[in-house]
Q: What sequence folds into this?
């Protein structure tokens, strides 16, 4: 049976990194539920980890601690005891950075309209998910709920929103 691939955005790693974050306990409950599932593949991207570094540095957490945390994820390909697939922006070898930004430009036009517009960082996550044929995101971020075409599981709301 093929596993369902789900994508962790940056907010999941922020909650995991900072044990004092109010979202950390919610994440504990999520991982407890997921531990019984065998048909799920947890994924993230190098972009999510890069964005994590940027966000945590803004919160003035020591840079070395951040770098060690991200390096540990990359070295072990795990979050807690769960295997984590680290995605490239596209699985094709001949997909260039230029191709990525062409796709991103189209996504910006498509998604940066209306009242609840997601930020560029969120649109980059969506492009990586599309390129890797992933249609479910695990997040604490409400901005993904306004993007059509995939399922958003917002851990703070405890709901599944499919568009």
A:
């Amino acid at each position: 049976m093929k596993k369902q691939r789900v994508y962790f955005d940056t907010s999941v790693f922020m909650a995991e990194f900072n044990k004092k974050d109010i979202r950390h306990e919610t994440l504990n409950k999520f991982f407890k539920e997921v531990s019984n599932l065998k048909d799920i593949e947890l994924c993230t991207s190098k972009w999510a980890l890069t964005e994590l570094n940027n966000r945590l540095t803004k919160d003035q957490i020591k840079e070395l601690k951040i770098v060690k945390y991200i390096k540990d994820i990359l070295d072990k390909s795990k979050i807690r005891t769960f295997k984590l697939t680290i995605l490239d922006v596209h699985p094709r070898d001949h997909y260039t950075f230029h191709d990525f930004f062409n796709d991103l430009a189209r996504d910006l036009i498509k998604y940066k309209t209306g009242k609840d517009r997601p930020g560029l960082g969120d649109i980059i996550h969506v492009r990586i998910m599309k390129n890797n044929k992933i249609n479910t995101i695990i997040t604490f971020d409400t901005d993904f709920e306004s993007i059509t075409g995939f399922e958003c599981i917002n851990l703070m709301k405890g709901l599944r929103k499919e568009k």
